[in-house]
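If you are new to this repository, start here. Below is one unmodified record pulled from the training split, so you can see the exact layout before writing a loader.
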Amino acid sequence: MITKETTFSLTDLKRNTRKVINKAKESNLPLYIMDRSKPLGVFLNLEYYNNMAESLEDLIDIELIRNTPLDDLTPLEDFIKEQGLHLKKTK
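And here is the target side for that same chain:
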């Protein structure tokens, strides 16, 4: 959500680049860069970005599985054999 605390002007970014970068590092929120009161871009800290990218990848995988006919899926046991993997048996 765009708030005063998460908004920086393009001039702020030019004059105080390190400040904006540090705020992005410390914050777990997206920081919005504005140009003449219009959103221009977003700064994210690396952890926030990685979490977002991983969540998106998970959603894409889920959608792919939902749209795959059951006949096209490989049973887990067959996949394990094809990959040359071995499962440890538990007692």
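Two things worth knowing about this chain: The longest strand covers residues 38-43. DSSP finds four helices and three strands in the chain.
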